[in-house]
C-alpha cells in the first residue's frame, strides 16, 4: 500500500504523488478494514464524508459514524451516504447504519462507544492546544475502540514541498516532525493501555530518506479485551453531539425486506416451474393436433410429474427431498407446486432457514392451496398466450 | 396490433405509449458503425421572424452577463458555456424542459389584451399547483466567480470559494461559475485569496452581475435548483427527472416489479404567480438485474434467436446501476466484449471492468462471460465540455427499470399496475398534499426556505374554469345528443344510418382452417348489423390459408385484384410479424384497404354483435365512408394534424404522420407521411405534404381553403423554440409559393398530452374529475403564451389528464373562445371511437398513421390510399 510512485518534476523540483496522497490515505484505511473486518467504524473529522462513502461499500461494516466540527462541510455531500435505489431493490444480508454527528473530538458522547475502529485522518493538526490536550482522554480513554488510526503531516518533509512556508494548510495549528509525533503517540498509548506502530505514506525521494514519509501514520491497538459495559457505565451519558444525518440501509434482517425477497423468489421459482410444465405439455398437445385429435377446451391435464429439469438449482433440489412430496401437479386451470419443493431451492432455503419460516413469510402474500402445502399458479393466462 | 377492434382504449384517455417491437435489429456491423457517430443536431435555424423576440436564458435583458472574459482559451470556454447553458445543479440536466423564454404570444395581435374564452358554465376547480411566495423587496444576487490562476475542477472551485464563509454566508448556490446569494455583498467586486491543498494561493474575484427580481427567468431556474435540494433533504431519491420515496415501495412479485411512489415537480412563472406544480409519479423498478433477465430469456428461446430477441427486448430500456444512482439508456449490446475487457481510466492507466468495480465499489462480478451494454452519452460534461464516449455497463450491475414491450402488451401486468398507479382525484390530491406536508414539517427544509426568504402555500390553488356545451352529433340528417358525463354516443346512434357508406360488393375474407367458425360467425353478424347502417353487403369471397405468414402473402398476391374493395384477415394470434407483412403488402405494393381481426375476439357469442358493429364501422371508414359529424361553423377551413412516431430500437427512424381535412364537415381526410432519419424531431418535408394537401383540397372543393389550422402533436419538451423558428416559417413559405393572390390565414397549435397539470372539480365537498368540455385558460397558463387546457375525454377510473394547447402562431384573428370551441369540436371526430377523445381527431389520425408506418410498414404507403382512413 505504500507503493506510491514518486515523481519528481525535473525543472521545478515539485513532488507529485500518484495516486494523490489523500487517496492513498483513504486506501490505507480501506485496506485495514478489509484486513481486520471491523463492524463498527467511526471517522473523526470526516469533512465531506469521502472516506465514509468509500467505506460504506465494505461489506463487513454494520455501523458507520462520522464526526466533524463543521456542519456545513458535512452537509455538502452527505446525501452520498444515503442508500441507493439498488440497495432497496436487492437488500443485502448485512445491516448498515450511517450516522453523522456534529461535535468536537474534545467532548465525550456515548454514541461513540463500542467501536472497532476509529480513524482520525489529518485531524489532530487542526486542533487547538486545549482540544489536543483532551483528545487522548476522549479517544483512547472514553471511546476506547479496539483500533485507532491517526495520520498527520510530517513537518520534516515540508522543505521538499513547493510553496510550503510554515504549514501545509492555513488552518493547521501545528505540524510535527517524526520525533514529536511518535513521542506524543507513545505517551497516549502507554497511558491508555494501547500498543502503537508507526508507518506512513508518500515516501521521500532518493537521497532524502531521512525525512521520512510525507504523511505519518500511527496505528494503535487496544491491549485489553473489550470488557465494554462495566467501564462504560461509569462514563457520562449525556449527549454532546448532535445527529445531523442518519441512514438505515435496507437489510434482509428486517422482516419487511425479507418477506419481499422471499415472496418474489417463491413466485419466480413457481412461475419457472409452471412454464416448463406448460412447455412440455404444449409439445404433447402439438403432437396430438398433428394427429388430428380434437382437443376439447375443457380438457384436463393428467397429473403430470416434473422429473426433468435443466436448471441445476432445481434439479439439485429435487434430489434432496422425498419424491412423493415433490410432485407438481395440474388441476383445473392451475398448477400446484408443493411448498416443500420450493423450499428445497437453495436460494429460498438460504433466505428462510426453516420451512416454518417460509410458510409464515408467504402466508397471505402468495396464493396457496387449501391445505397450504402448495403454491398455486393460475394457467388461464398462459394458455391464452399459447393459443 | 391488439386486435384492431379491441384497440379502442388507445383513442381515449390512456393512450398507452406502446413502443415498437418492430424494427428489426440490424446486423452487428451496422450498429457498431452507428455508435461512433455524434448525435445529429437539429437543423440549422433560420433567423426568427422579426416580431419574435427571445429572451435568452440565464440573463435578464439589458444587464451584461459576464465581465469581459480574458483571452485565455480556457476562460473563454467557461464563459461561453455559461452563457449558453446557464447554471444547473450538479448532475442536473441542462436542457430547458419548460420552454422558458419562448414568447410566442406577443406576436399575436388579437390576444395581447386577453386570451380567455367566454362561453360555457362556470365550474369551481382546484389544481396541483402551489404558490411560491417571497419576502417583499426580495431579490436574488447573481455573482460571477473568477479564479486566478484558472482552476478547472468544479469541486475545487467550490472548496476554494467556500473557504470564505464569513463573507458569502452559508446560504448559497454555486455551480462552479455562477454564485447566487440572498444578500448583496458590500462591494460590486470583491477579491479574496484561498489556498489549495498544495498550498497554492488562488485569487478569487467575486463580481456582482445582476440583481434579479423574483420573476426573472434565471430566478426560476434557481427556484428549481433549491427545490431539488429540498427534495434531497427529505430523503427522496432522484431517478431521472423525478424524485421517489424508497421507503414505501409497492411490490408486485407476480411480475417481478416494484413501484416507487414519487413526485414530478417544476416551478414556473404562471399567469399571475410563480407556482410549484407537482404531480404523483410512479417509477417502475425491477428487482432483477439485466443479467438475470438475460439468463431467464436464454432459457426460454432457441439459442440462435437469443441475441436478436435479447436486443429487441433490451435496447431502448432504461437501466439503473447498482453502485451509483445513475440511469442509462441501453443503446446496444456488445456481445464480443466481457467484464474482463479493459478500459483507460482518467489517469491513463488500463484496468479491467472486474477489477475496477471491485476496487471502486467492492462489487464482485461473478459471470465473466456476460456481454456488456453500451449507452450513448447525450450530455456534455462541464462547462463547454467535451462529448464523452459511450458508457459501457455490466449487465450484472444494472437493474431494469420500466416495462418491456412484452409487459406493456400484457393485459394482466397492466391491470395489476393500474391498480396502484391510477389514482382517483381524491387520492391524487392526498398524495400531492403529502409533498407539501413534508415541506411544511421538515425543519431543515423550512430553515433552508427561510434563509432564502421563500415559502410555499400549503393549499392547492383554486380558481374557476368553464364547461363548454356538449356538441350534437349529426348522422345523416339526424342530430343526436349524448350524456356529457360519459362523452360517448355509441348507444344513442346505434342503428342510425351513417353519413355515407361504401357497399361491400367484392371483398375477401382470409382465415385459417382453425378459425373457419369464427370467419363464418363474422360474416353472419356483419349481415345482421350492416343493414341498419345503410351498408349493402354481398357475401365475402372466403379463402382458407395455412397459418403461416408466407401463406397469407401468397394468397393476397393471388387473390387481391384491383376490384377488391377490402381484405379482411382473420388472424389466430397477435403475432406481430404476420400483421406487419399483411399491412406492408396491402399498403404499399398492392394498395387495398385491409382489416385484421384476431379470431379470439369473435369467440364470445355475447359480444360478437358489438364487435361486428365496430368492425363494420371501421371497414366503412377504411374504404372512404363517413360516419358522423358535428357542426363546424367556419367555412373554407382546412384542419391539419401532425404527429411523430419515434422508433426506439436500432436505426431510430422517425415517422411523421400528416393529415388534412378535405371537406366542411371534417369527415374526410387526406394523409401523407414522412420518414426521417434518427434523432430528428421536427418534420422536414412539411412543405411537400402541405402542397399535396392543398391540391387534394382543391380537387374536392374547386377552390383553396381560406383558413388553415394546424394541430401539431409530438413536440418534445424544450423544442418549442425550434418549432417556432423552423417549422412555422416552412409552412408560411409553402403557402406563399402557392400563388401571389393566395393569402390564407394560418394558425399553428402545439398539442401536448403529457402535462403534469391536473384539475379537480369541487362538487359537494368531494373532488371529482372535471366533466368533458372543461376549459382552463387562467392562472395555470403561461403569460408569454396563447395557451389553454381542455379536458375533453371522460375516464372511468383514475384522474383525467388535461390536454394543453399552445397557439404559437395565429393570423386568423379568431377569438380565443372560438378557437377553444373548435378544438373541442374536433375531439368528437375520431371515427374509431364513438365518443370524445383526448386530442383533436386530426392528431389522433396522424398518430395512427405514423404508428402504422413506423411499426409495421417502414415505407411510405402508396399515395393512392391517401384520401381514405386506411390506417385506422
TrEMBL record, chain A:
Its EC number is 2.1.1.386. It comes from Alligator sinensis. SUPFAM superfamilies: S-adenosyl-L-methionine-dependent methyltransferases. This is Small RNA 2'-O-methyltransferase. GO terms for molecular function: metal ion binding; RNA binding; small RNA 2'-O-methyltransferase activity. PANTHER family: HEN1 (PTHR21404), SMALL RNA 2'-O-METHYLTRANSFERASE (PTHR21404:SF3). Keywords: Magnesium, Metal-binding, Methyltransferase, RNA-binding, RNA-mediated gene silencing, S-adenosyl-L-methionine, Transferase. Its cofactor is Mg(2+). The keyword ATP-binding does not apply. Gene3D superfamilies: Vaccinia Virus protein VP39. The keyword Magnesium applies. InterPro entries: Hen1, SAM-dependent_MTases_sf. It is an enzyme of class 2 (transferase). GO terms for cellular component: cytoplasm; nucleus. One of its GO terms (biological process) is siRNA processing. Belongs to the methyltransferase superfamily. HEN1 family. The lineage of its organism: Eukaryota, Metazoa, Chordata, Craniata, Vertebrata.
TrEMBL record, chain B:
Pfam families: GAGE, PAZ, Piwi, Piwi_N. Residues 1-11 have a biased composition (Basic residues). The keyword Hydrolase applies. CDD domains: PAZ_piwi_like, Piwi_piwi-like_Euk. Residues 289-402 form the PAZ domain. It is found in: Cytoplasm. Its cofactor is Mg(2+). Gene3D superfamilies: 3.40.50.2300, paz domain (2.170.260.10), Ribonuclease H-like superfamily/Ribonuclease H (3.30.420.10). One of its GO terms (biological process) is regulatory ncRNA-mediated gene silencing. Residues 33-43 have a biased composition (Low complexity). One of its GO terms (cellular component) is cytoplasm. One of its GO terms (molecular function) is endonuclease activity. Belongs to the argonaute family. Piwi subfamily. This is Piwi-like protein 1. The gene is PIWIL1.
Amino acid at each position: 500500500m505504500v507503493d506510491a510512485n514518486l515523481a519528481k518534476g525535473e525543472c521545478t523540483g515539485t513532488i507529485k504523488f500518484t495516486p494523490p496522497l489523500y487517496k492513498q490515505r483513504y486506501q490505507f484505511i480501506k485496506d485495514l478494514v478489509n484486513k481486520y473486518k471491523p463492524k463498527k467504524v467511526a471517522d473523526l473529522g470526516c469533512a465531506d464524508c469521502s472516506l465514509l462513502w468509500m467505506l460504506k461499500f465494505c461489506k463487513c461494516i454494520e455501523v458507520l459514524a462520522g464526526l466533524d466540527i463543521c456542519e456545513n462541510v458535512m452537509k455538502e455531500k452527505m446525501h452520498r451516504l444515503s442508500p441507493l435505489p439498488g440497495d432497496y431493490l436487492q437488500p443485502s444480508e448485512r445491516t448498515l447504519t450511517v450516522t453523522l454527528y456534529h461535535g468536537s473530538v474534545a467532548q465525550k458522547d456515548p454514541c461513540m462507544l463500542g467501536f472497532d475502529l476509529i480513524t482520525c485522518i489529518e485531524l489532530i493538526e487542526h486542533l487547538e492546544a486545549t482540544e489536543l490536550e483532551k483528545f487522548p482522554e476522549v479517544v483512547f480513554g472514553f471511546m476506547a475502540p479496539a483500533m485507532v488510526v491517526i495520520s498527520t503531516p510530517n513537518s520534516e518533509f515540508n522543505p521538499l514541498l513547493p510553496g510550503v512556508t510554515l504549514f501545509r494548510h492555513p488552518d493547521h495549528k501545528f505540524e510535527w516532525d517524526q520525533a514529536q509525533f511518535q513521542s506524543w503517540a507513545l505517551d497516549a498509548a502507554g497511558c491508555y493501555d494501547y500498543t502503537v506502530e508507526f508507518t506512513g505514506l508518500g515516501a521521500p525521494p532518493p537521497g532524502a530518506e531521512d525525512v521520512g514519509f510525507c504523511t505519518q501514520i500511527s496505528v494503535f491497538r487496544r491491549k485489553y479485551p473489550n470488557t465494554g459495559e462495566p467501564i462504560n457505565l461509569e462514563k457520562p451519558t449525556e449527549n454532546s453531539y448532535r445527529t445531523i444525518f442518519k441512514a438505515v440501509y435496507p437489510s434482509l434482517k428486517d422482516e419487511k425486506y425479507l418477506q419481499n425477497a422471499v415472496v418474489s423468489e417463491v413466485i419466480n421459482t413457481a412461475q419457472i416451474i409452471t412454464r416448463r410444465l406448460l412447455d412440455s405439455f404444449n409439445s404433447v398437445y402439438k403432437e396430438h393436433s398433428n394427429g388430428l385429435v380434437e382437443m376439447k377446451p375443457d380438457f384436463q391435464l393428467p397429473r403430470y410429474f416434473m422429473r426433468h429439469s435443466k436448471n441445476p438449482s432445481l434439479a439439485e433440489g429435487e434430489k434432496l427431498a422425498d419424491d412423493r412430496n415433490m410432485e407438481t401437479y395440474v388441476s383445473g386451470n392451475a398448477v400446484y407446486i408443493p411448498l416443500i419443493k420450493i423450499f428445497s431451492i437453495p436460494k429460498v432455503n438460504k433466505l428462510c432457514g426453516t420451512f416454518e419460516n417460509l410458510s409464515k413469510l408467504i402466508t397471505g402474500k402468495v396464493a396457496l392451496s387449501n391445505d397450504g402445502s402448495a403454491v398455486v399458479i393460475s394457467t388461464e393466462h398462459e394458455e391464452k398466450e399459447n393459443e | 396490433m391488439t386486435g384492431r377492434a379491441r384497440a379502442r382504449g388507445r383513442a381515449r384517455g390512456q393512450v398507452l405509449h406502446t413502443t415498437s417491437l418492430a424494427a428489426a435489429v440490424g446486423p452487428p456491423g451496422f450498429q457498431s458503425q452507428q455508435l461512433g457517430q455524434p448525435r445529429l443536431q437539429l437543423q440549422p435555424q433560420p433567423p426568427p421572424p422579426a416580431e419574435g423576440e427571445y429572451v435568452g436564458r440565464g440573463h435578464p435583458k439589458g444587464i451584461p452577463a459576464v465581465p469581459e472574459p480574458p483571452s485565455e482559451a480556457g476562460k473563454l470556454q467557461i464563459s461561453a458555456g455559461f452563457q449558453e447553458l446557464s447554471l444547473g445543479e450538479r448532475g442536473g440536466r441542462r436542457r430547458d424542459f419548460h420552454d422558458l423564454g419562448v414568447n410566442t404570444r406577443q406576436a399575436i395581435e388579437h390576444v395581447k389584451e386577453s386570451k380567455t374564452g367566454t362561453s360555457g358554465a362556470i365550474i369551481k376547480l382546484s389544481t396541483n399547483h402551489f404558490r411560491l411566495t417571497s419576502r417583499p423587496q426580495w431579490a436574488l444576487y447573481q455573482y460571477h466567480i473568477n479564479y486566478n490562476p484558472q482552476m478547472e475542477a468544479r469541486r475545487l472551485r467550490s472548496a476554494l470559494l467556500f473557504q470564505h464563509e464569513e463573507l458569502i454566508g452559508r446560504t448559497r448556490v454555486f455551480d462552479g461559475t455562477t454564485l447566487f446569494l440572498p444578500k448583496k455583498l458590500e462591494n460590486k467586486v470583491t477579491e479574496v485569496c484561498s489556498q489549495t491543498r498544495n498550498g497554492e494561493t488562488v485569487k478569487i474575484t467575486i463580481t456582482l452581475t445582476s440583481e434579479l427580481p423574483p420573476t426573472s427567468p434565471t430566478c426560476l431556474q434557481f427556484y428549481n435548483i433549491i427545490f431539488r435540494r429540498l427534495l434531497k433533504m427529505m430523503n427522496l431519491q432522484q431517478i431521472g427527472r423525478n424524485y421517489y420515496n424508497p421507503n414505501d415501495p409497492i411490490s408486485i412479485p407476480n411480475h417481478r416489479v416494484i413501484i416507487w411512489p414519487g413526485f414530478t415537480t417544476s416551478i414556473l412563472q404562471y399567469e399571475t404567480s410563480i407556482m410549484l406544480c407537482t404531480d404523483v409519479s410512479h417509477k417502475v423498478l425491477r428487482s432483477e438485474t439485466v443479467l438475470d433477465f438475460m439468463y431467464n430469456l436464454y432459457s426460454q428461446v432457441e439459442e440462435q434467436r437469443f441475441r436478436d430477441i435479447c436486443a429487441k427486448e433490451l435496447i431502448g430500456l432504461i437501466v439503473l446501476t447498482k453502485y451509483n444512482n445513475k440511469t442509462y439508456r441501453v443503446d446496444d449490446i456488445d456481445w464480443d466484449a466481457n467484464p474482463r475487457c479493459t478500459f483507460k481510466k482518467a489517469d491513463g492507466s488500463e484496468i479491467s471492468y472486474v477489477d475496477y468495480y471491485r476496487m471502486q465499489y467492492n462489487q464482485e462480478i461473478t459471470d465473466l462471460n456476460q456481454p456488456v451494454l453500451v449507452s450513448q452519452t447525450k450530455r456534455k460534461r462541464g462547462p463547454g465540455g467535451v462529448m464523452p464516449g459511450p458508457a459501457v455497463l455490466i449487465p450484472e450491475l444494472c437493474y431494469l427499470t420500466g416495462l418491456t414491450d412484452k409487459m406493456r402488451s400484457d393485459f394482466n401486468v397492466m391491470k395489476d399496475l393500474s391498480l396502484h398507479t391510477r389514482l382517483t382525484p381524491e387520492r391524487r390530491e392526498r398524495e400531492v398534499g403529502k409533498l407539501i406536508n413534508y415541506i411544511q414539517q421538515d425543519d431543515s427544509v423550512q430553515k433552508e426556505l427561510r434563509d432564502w426568504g421563500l415559502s410555499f402555500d400549503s393549499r392547492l390553488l383554486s380558481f374557476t374554469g368553464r364547461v363548454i356545451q356538449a356538441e350534437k352529433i349529426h348522422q345523416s340528417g339526424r342530430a343526436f345528443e349524448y350524456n356529457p358525463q360519459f362523452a360517448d354516443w355509441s348507444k344513442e346512434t346505434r342503428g342510425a344510418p351513417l353519413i355515407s357508406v361504401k357497399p361491400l360488393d367484392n371483398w375477401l375474407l382470409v382465415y385459417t382452417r382453425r378459425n373457419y367458425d369464427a370467419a363464418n360467425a363474422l360474416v353472419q353478424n356483419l349481415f345482421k348489423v350492416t343493414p341498419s347502417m345503410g351498408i349493402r353487403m354481398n357475401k365475402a369471397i372466403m379463402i382458407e390459408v395455412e397459418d403461416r405468414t408466407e401463406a397469407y402473402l401468397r394468397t393476397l398476391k393471388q387473390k387481391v385484384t384491383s376490384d377488391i374493395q377490402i381484405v379482411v384477415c382473420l388472424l389466430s394470434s397477435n403475432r406481430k410479424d404476420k400483421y406487419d407483412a399483411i399491412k406492408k403488402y396491402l399498403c404499399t405494393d398492392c394498395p387495398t384497404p385491409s382489416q385484421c381481426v384476431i379470431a379470439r375476439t369473435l369467440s364470445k357469442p355475447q359480444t360478437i354483435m358489438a364487435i361486428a358493429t365496430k368492425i363494420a364501422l371501421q371497414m366503412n371508414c377504411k374504404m372512404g365512408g363517413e360516419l358522423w359529424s358535428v357542426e363546424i361553423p367556419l367555412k373554407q377551413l382546412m384542419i391539419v394534424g401532425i404527429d411523430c412516431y419515434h422508433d426506439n430500437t436500432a436505426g431510430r427512424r422517425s415517422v411523421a404522420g400528416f393529415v388534412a381535412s378535405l371537406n366542411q364537415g371534417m369527415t374526410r381526410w387526406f394523409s401523407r407521411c414522412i420518414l426521417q432519419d434518427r434523432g430528428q424531431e421536427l418534420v422536414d418535408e412539411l412543405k411537400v405534404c402541405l402542397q399535396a394537401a392543398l391540391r387534394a383540397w382543391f380537387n374536392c372543393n374547386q377552390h383553396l381553403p381560406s383558413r388553415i389550422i394546424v394541430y401539431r402533436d409530438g413536440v418534445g419538451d424544450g423544442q418549442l423554440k425550434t418549432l417556432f423558428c423552423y417549422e412555422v416559417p416552412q409552412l408560411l413559405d409553402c403557402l406563399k409559393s402557392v400563388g401571389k393572390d393566395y393569402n390564407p390565414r394560418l394558425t399553428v397549435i402545439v398539442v401536448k398530452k403529457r402535462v403534469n397539470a391536473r384539475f379537480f372539480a369541487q362538487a359537494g365537498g368531494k373532488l371529482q374529475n372535471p366533466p368533458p368540455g372543461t376549459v382552463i385558460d387562467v392562472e395555470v397558463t403561461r403569460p408569454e403564451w396563447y395557451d389553454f387546457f381542455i379536458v375533453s375525454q371522460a375516464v372511468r377510473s383514475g384522474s383525467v389528464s388535461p390536454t394543453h394547447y399552445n397557439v404559437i402562431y395565429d393570423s386568423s384573428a379568431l377569438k380565443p373562445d372560438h378557437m377553444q370551441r373548435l378544438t373541442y369540436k374536433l375531439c368528437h371526430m375520431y371515427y374509431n371511437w364513438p365518443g370524445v377523445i383526448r386530442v383533436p381527431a386530426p392528431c389522433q389520425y396522424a398518430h395512427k398513421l405514423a404508428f402504422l408506418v413506423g411499426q409495421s410498414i417502414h415505407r411510405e404507403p402508396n399515395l393512392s390510399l391517401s384520401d381514405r382512413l386506411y390506417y385506422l
